[in-house]
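Ticket #4471: complex job returned nothing on first submit. Input attached below:
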Amino acid sequence: GENVEQHPSTLSVQEGDSAVIKCTYSDSASNYFPWYKQELGKRPQLIIDIRSNVGEKKDQRIAVTLNKTAKHFSLHITETQPEDSAVYFCAASFNYQLIWGAGTKLIIKP
Amino acid sequence: EAQVTQNPRYLITVTGKKLTVTCSQNMNHEYMSWYRQDPGLGLRQIYYSMNVEVTDKGDVPEGYKVSRKEKRNFPLILESPSPNQTSLYFCASSRGGTNEKLFFGSGTQLSVL
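Support reply: We reran it on our side without changes. The output follows.
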């Protein structure tokens, strides 16, 4: 079936450094790729998304890039801060469903 | 306030005792969905609904039922819960489908003994 692979499963970075999380999807027809952030004990919340007709999108310290040919997309967080500590999920749309990656736990070291 | 309301927040039950987790949204959203979240597996879709009286299976529908009799409500029913259904459950809704922002409920932590 369709799947989304997400790497790494855990990422530890020094505060102020950049973090990059990568996802690969299997269905070439997917056209919507959101990223959700889930803080401990909370619900997932959308932080940024990208559609297949766009190669890159930025929102302040967060950016997402999409390579349709290679079928992968990445989340970039610059100047990381303690409040960036959370689990991040990528997803890809497929036939009225969202297929989710397994998540990346981002740890920001002081 | 625009929100998805999910109840209960925590639930402990025993094998075989029917239960219902309620989900309601006040945003007039067409699309609603149920997910379960297990460590290392991310979010897996149980059922979804594109509109009233229209429901479809997701990736892991076995052991679950849903109904969409009204636009705002999308309850999740476990007719005969088993221990492997112990999980964190989320209801979510969006205006028009999976190509738009999902609004999540606060989650239900279910333990089946």
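DSSP finds no helices and eleven strands in chain B. Closing as resolved unless it happens again.
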